Structures are given as C-alpha cells and as structure tokens.
Amino acid sequence: MFQGSHNINMDAKGRLAIPAKHRDTLEATCACKIVMTAHTQDKCVLIYPETEWQLILPQIEALPTFNRAALRAQRLLIGYATSLILDGNGRILVPPTLREYGGFDKKLILVGLGKKFELWDEEAWLATLAEAQDDEMPEQMLALSL
Question: Which residue pairs, CB below 8 angstroms and at least 24 apart, start in 31-35?
Fold first, then answer.
C-alpha cells in the first residue's frame, strides 16, 4: 500500500503536506482520516489510516498492563494517538506533543511501510540509517531473494 521515502517540509505552524501519490490511497481507504501516534522504540511518529488503526487498537488495549513494557507501549501508542483529517490540500497539522516527541524541525522524512507511515526528523532518520548499517540481518531477511 504505502512505500517509498519522501522529503517533506513542515511549516512554522506544524503543518505538512502528504505526498500526492498517497492522498488517493488515503481517500479510497479511509476518507483521508488518519491516526498519528508515537513510535514505541524510536523517536519518530507513526501514521495509520484510521481503518488500519481501528484493527490494531484492540490488540494494543489487550496487552497486559501488569507488564511494564506493555504498559509503556499502551501509554505511548494510545496516549499520543490523535485522529486527524487531511484538508483539501492534503495537509495535516502535527500536534505539538508529537512534534516534541519526534524532535521535529522543518525538514522531515515520510517513510511508507506498507500499511502505515513513519514520520522522522531528517537528521534523526539519517542517523538511524547509519547506525543500522552494520546490524546483523534477521534470518527471515537472509532467506529472501532480493
């Protein structure tokens, strides 16, 4: 569904435009309604079509709250979750709490990851790629014929 990476500029008010190639898909799948929330492991923001978010929300709510890692995931995913609708120009306003969480400045990267997007500060994205360069590939990746 969503793939590729896109350089995006956020304006001084915290607005950004979703690339045109993804707007049609968002219109068709969720009437341009999305949910933006915090990533549980990286300092970036997740963007889900609302229909996809509604499928995973019960799974998040079902996590055991007596487990500290699960509770942290619930706090981040549900606590930061914000429903948004793209305006007529395909723009959204990134909530201040998520701008702060992601360390967002003007230059951002939107990365399509199939059923969702990640939104990164450009410097953080490049640093993450550089750090992961020497990471060992999971067994499942080695079996792919790429």
Answer: 31/85, 32/85, 32/86, 32/90, 33/83, 33/84, 33/85, 34/83, 34/84, 34/85, 34/86, 34/92, 35/81, 35/82, 35/83, 35/84
